[in-house]
C-alpha cells in the first residue's frame, strides 16, 4: 500500500443510511422558502395592480378636470352628492391601503 | 444524463421532492466534509449549504458531478462563516470532529493530523483523499488554479505523512 492509499484508507468512513431527521429538516426549510417566495410574488403582483389602478384613477380625474367647462359649478350637478361620497370612499381606501402597516400583509 | 442531473433539473423547476432526494443522496458526504473542516458548526453550515443549493438550483449546469457542486457551496459557506467569525483561534474553532470509525486509534491519528493543517490544506486533503475528488474537481470546488491546488495537496500530504509517522 503506497502513501496515498494509506492516507485515503484513513479518511474512509463506513457507509451509513441517510439521516432522515436531517433530510426532513431541510425539507421543512425548503417548504418554508417556497411559501415565502409565493407570498413575495403575491405581494408584488398586488402592489403592481394597485399602482396601476391608482394611476388610472388619477389620470381619469385629471382628464375630467381638463375637459370640464371653466364656468361649470360642480355642486349643481345632479349626481354631486354621490360623486362627493365616492371621492371620500376613494380617499379612505387610499389612506388604508397606503399606510405603512398595510404593506406588510 | 445521470440520476442526479435529472433530479437537479426537476429541483430547478421547483420540485421539492426531487431536491429532497438529492439531499438524501448527498447529506452524508457534505456533512462529513464540513464536520472535518468546521467541527461543531458543521450541521448549521450543511443546512445553509443545502438551502443555498435549493435557491441556486437553476445555476447547476450539469457539467460536473452534483456532489462537487454541493461541495463548492459548502466550502464557500465555510469560508464565509469563518471570515464572519473573525480571526479567532482557527485551529480551535475548526477542530475536526472525530468520526465513528472501525479503528479508534486511526480516528485519533487522523484527527491529530488534520488539526495540524491549515484550512486550505485540510479542505484539499479531505476532497482528494476523503471524497475521492480529482485534482481538477477539487480545484474547481476551491476555486483555485490547478497548479496551486496540486501544491496544496502535496503540502497537505507531506504534513499528514509526517504527523502520522511521528
Describe this structure in words.
The complex is a heterodimer of chains A (105) and B (166). The longest helix of chain A has 48 residues, at 20-67. Chain A has 105 residues and is mostly helical. Chain A is built from three helices and no strands. The longest helix of chain B has 23 residues, at 16-38. In chain B, 40% of the residues are buried. Chain B is mainly alpha-helical and 166 residues long. Chain B has helices at 3-12, 16-38, 42-55, 66-84, 90-93, 104-115, 119-130, 135-142, 146-165. The interface between A and B is medium-sized, with 24 and 34 residues.
Q: Which shape of chain B, going by the Cα principal axes?
A: globular
Contiguous uncertain segments of 5+ residues of chain A: none
| Helix-strand sequence of chain B | HHHHHHHHH
Helix content of chain A: over 70%
Strand content of chain A: under 5%
The SS-based structural class of chain B is mainly alpha
Helical fraction of chain B? over 70%
Please give the number of β-strands of chain A: 0
The average pLDDT score of chain A comes to: 82
> What is the end-to-end distance of chain A?
65 Å
> Biggest interface pair, residues each?
A-B, 24 and 34 residues
Strand content of chain B: under 5%
Oligomer classification: heterodimer
Keywords:
heterodimer; A: 105 residues; mainly alpha; B: mainly alpha
What's the short version?
By secondary structure, chain A is mainly alpha-helical. Chain A is about 70% helix and about 0% strand. The radius of gyration of chain A is 31 Å and the shape is rod-shaped.
Topology:
The complex is a heterodimer of chains A (105) and B (166).
Chain A (H helix, E strand, L loop, with lengths): L2 H9 L8 H48 L12 H19 L7
Chain B lengths: L2 H10 L3 H23 L3 H14 L10 H19 L5 H4 L10 H12 L3 H12 L4 H8 L3 H20 L1
Helix pairs in contact in B: 1-2, 2-3, 2-4, 3-4, 4-8, 6-9, 7-8, 7-9, 8-9
Amino acid at each position: 500500500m503506497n502513501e496515498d492509499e494509506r492516507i485515503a484508507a484513513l479518511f474512509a468512513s463506513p457507509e451509513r443510511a441517510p439521516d432522515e431527521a436531517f433530510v426532513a429538516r431541510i425539507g421543512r426549510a425548503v417548504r418554508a422558502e417556497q411559501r415565502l417566495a409565493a407570498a413575495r410574488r403575491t405581494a408584488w403582483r398586488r402592489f403592481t395592480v394597485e399602482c396601476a389602478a391608482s394611476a388610472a384613477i388619477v389620470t381619469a380625474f385629471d382628464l375630467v378636470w381638463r375637459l370640464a367647462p371653466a364656468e361649470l359649478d360642480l355642486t349643481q350637478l345632479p349626481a354631486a352628492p354621490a360623486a362627493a361620497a365616492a371621492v371620500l370612499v376613494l380617499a379612505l381606501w387610499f389612506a388604508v391601503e397606503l399606510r405603512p402597516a398595510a404593506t406588510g400583509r | 444524463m445521470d440520476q442526479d442531473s435529472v433530479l437537479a433539473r426537476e429541483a430547478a423547476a421547483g420540485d421539492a421532492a426531487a431536491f429532497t432526494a438529492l439531499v438524501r443522496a448527498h447529506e452524508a458526504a457534505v456533512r462529513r466534509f464540513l464536520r472535518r473542516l468546521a467541527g461543531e458548526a458543521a450541521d448549521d453550515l450543511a443546512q445553509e449549504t443545502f438551502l443555498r443549493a435549493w435557491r441556486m438550483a437553476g445555476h447547476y449546469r450539469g457539467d460536473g458531478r452534483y456532489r462537487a457542486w454541493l461541495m463548492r457551496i459548502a466550502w464557500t459557506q465555510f469560508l464565509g462563516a469563518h471570515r464572519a467569525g473573525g480571526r479567532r483561534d482557527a485551529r480551535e474553532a475548526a477542530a475536526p470532529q472525530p468520526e465513528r470509525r472501525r479503528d479508534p486509534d486511526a480516528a485519533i491519528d487522523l484527527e491529530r493530523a488534520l488539526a495540524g493543517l491549515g484550512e486550505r490544506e485540510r479542505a484539499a486533503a479531505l476532497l482528494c483523499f476523503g471524497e475521492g475528488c480529482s485534482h481538477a474537481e477539487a480545484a474547481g470546488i476551491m476555486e483555485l488554479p490547478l497548479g496551486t491546488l496540486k501544491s496544496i495537496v502535496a503540502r497537505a500530504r507531506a504534513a499528514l505523512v509526517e504527523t502520522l509517522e511521528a
